[in-house]
Amino acid sequence: MSTFEIKEEFYLNGEAMKIWSGAIHYFRIHENDWHHSLYNLKALGFNTVETYVPWNMHEKQPGEYDFSENLDVTKFIKTAQELGLWVIVRPSPYICAEWEFGGLPYWLLNESDIRLRSSDPKFLGFVDRYYEQLFKKLAPLQIDQGGPIIMMQVENEYGSFGEDKDYLVEMKRLMVKHGATVPLFTSDGAWKATLEAGSLVEENLLPTGNFGSKGKENFANLKAFHEQHHKKWPLMCMEFWAGWFNRWGEPIVTRETDELVEAIYEVMSLGSINLYMFHGGTNFGFMNGCSARGTKDLPQITSYDYGAPLDEQGNPTGKYYAIQQMIAEKFPWTKQMEPIIKDTMAIETIPLTDKVSLFSILDEVPTHVTAKYPLSMEKLNQHSGYLLYQTSYRKDTDNERFRLIDGRDRAQFYLNQELIATQYQDEIGEDIYVDITKEINEISILMENMGRVNYGHKLLTDTQRKGLRQGVMSDIHFMLEWHHYVLDFETTDFIDFSRQWQAGTPSFYQFNVALDQVEDTYIDMTGFGKGCVLVNGINIGRYWEVGPLTTLYIPKHILKETNEIIVFETEGVYQESIRLVDQPINIIN
C-alpha cells in the first residue's frame, strides 16, 4: 500500500517528490477520450492529474445523482491510475472553472433564506447530502486504500470570496465525515489577504497558490505566509494558468510560448506545479460560465481550449512540444514518451434536409406550464437553455408600449410571431413600442439563459435567476395568463419537421449525413446567427456570429454511420448547407 505525506516536502512512500500535475476536467471531455488526454500528460513526463468535480452535473435535480458515462469520475480516476498517474481531486461544492454557476446547482436559487458558500446550516445540509453520495466514489480511490488520489481540496479560492472560517472548518469536517483520509489543502491567490481569508492553517491544511507568472515572487509570498504561521511546508502552485478563457465577441486570449515555458520552468525549479489547463476541452450543452463586470455579465464561449498544451480536441500544440523540450533539457532524468495524436475529418457540403418553426411545434414541447404571472426558469425546475413565454393581448391603442420587468439574460419580443425587439441585460426594461393592427394578438418572448456567473459576489445576487422574474407590462400594468414552454434540449424527440416553417422566426434546421468512417471534426456555423447545435441528440454547445470562433467541436464518439445534425437558430438566418472542417475557425484576430 502506498503512502503520501506533507511535511517540509511532499513524500511518496517515504521519498521526497515534486508534484508535476496537469488539469483535465473529465466532464469537459468525452469519456472515450480520457485515456488519450491522460496518456499525453504522462508522455510529457508529468506524474499527476488534477480535476474539479461539478456538483451541478452530478446532482442536476435535488436528490437525483448521476455518475454515469461522461460523469463517471470513478472510471476517470482509475484510467489515470492505469497509466501510472497520481490524482488530485477538488470536490468543493464551488469550483469556479468558468463553469455554469461555478458548479453550484441552479436549484439552490429556489431555496429561501439560504446563503451560498457560508456556514449557513441550510447550505451545509445540501453539501452534506451530496458528499454522502460523492465520497462513495472518491473514498475507495484514495492512496491509503490502494487508489491514486493523493490530495483533496477544501473549498476553492475562498479567500477571493469570504472569510467565514466556520464554513471552511465545516467543509473539512464533512469531507472527513464521508471518508477523506488523504491530506487536504486550500488554494488561493498568492497574496496575504486572500491567503489569510481562504486558508485553514490552524487545521493543518496546506495552503497553495494560484498564479500564472512571477513564480519566484509568488512563492516568496506563499513561503512568508507559511513561516508567519510557523510552518515549513512545500511550495505548490495549484493553478498555473497556461492560458485563459474566452468570451463572446472578443479576440482569443493568447500567450507567447517562449514566455510561458520560461515561467513554467521557474515554478518547477522552485516547487510543485499544476498546469491549469493541461487539456481544457469543451463547455458542452449550456454549461459555459459567465464573467461579471460591473452591471454586465459576460458569458464565455463554448470552447474551453484555454490556450492549453493540448488543444480543444486533445492534440498536442506547440506549447506541448516546447514544454516537453524544456523538461528534457532541464530535468533529463524524466521519462518521456511520444504523444498520441487523433485524426480529424472535413466534409465540404452537407445539404439542408428539413426545417420547422418553433412556433409550429409548441404543442409538442414536453414541458408546458400555465400560470397567472411569468415564472422564472428556476421555478420551472429548468437548469439552462431557453424559455418561451406566450400570452394574449387585446388591442387598447394603435401604438402600445410594452416593457419586460426584471429579466435575464437575453430576450426576443414577438408580436404575432414577428420579431419586434431584442434586448440583452441592461436593455431589458426599456420601452418596446409596437403598432397594433389586430384586435387579438399573440405576445411571445423567447428568453435565453446565457450562463450564470462563476466567480465573485454575483453568486449571491438575484441576477442569477433566469427568465422573466417579475413580469411584462403593457401600458402601465402587468399582463396575466402566461404559457411557458421549456427548451432545455434534454431531448429532441418533440421536433416535428412535418410542421410549417416561417421565415424570420426561431427555427430548427435538420441536416443528415452518412459517414464511411468517423473522426473528430468541427462544424462551421458561418452564415448562421445564434443558437445551439445538437448532433445525434447531444447538445454540443452554443454558437454566435459575434465570434471569436464560428466552429463547434464534435468528438468522433458521438458520430455514427448515419447522423442527424439539428441547429436551433434564434435569429431567423440560416444556410442551405453546412460543412465540417478539420480545425477551429477564428474570425476575430
TrEMBL record:
Gene3D superfamilies: Galactose-binding domain-like, Glycosidases. InterPro entries: B-gal_1-like, BetaGal1-like_ABD1, BetaGal_gal-bd, Galactose-bd-like_sf, GH, Gly_Hdrlase_35_cat, Glyco_hydro_35_CS, Glycoside_Hdrlase_35. The keyword Hydrolase applies. SUPFAM superfamilies: (Trans)glycosidases, Galactose-binding domain-like. Residues 374-487 form the Beta-galactosidase 1-like first all-beta domain. It holds the Pfam family BetaGal_ABD_1. Keywords: Glycosidase, Hydrolase. PROSITE patterns: GLYCOSYL_HYDROL_F35 (PS01182). Residues 9-328 form the Glycoside hydrolase 35 catalytic domain. Residues 506-562 form the Beta-galactosidase galactose-binding domain. The keyword Hydrolase applies. Belongs to the glycosyl hydrolase 35 family. This is Beta-galactosidase. It comes from Candidatus Vagococcus giribetii. The lineage of its organism: Bacteria, Bacillati, Bacillota, Bacilli, Lactobacillales.
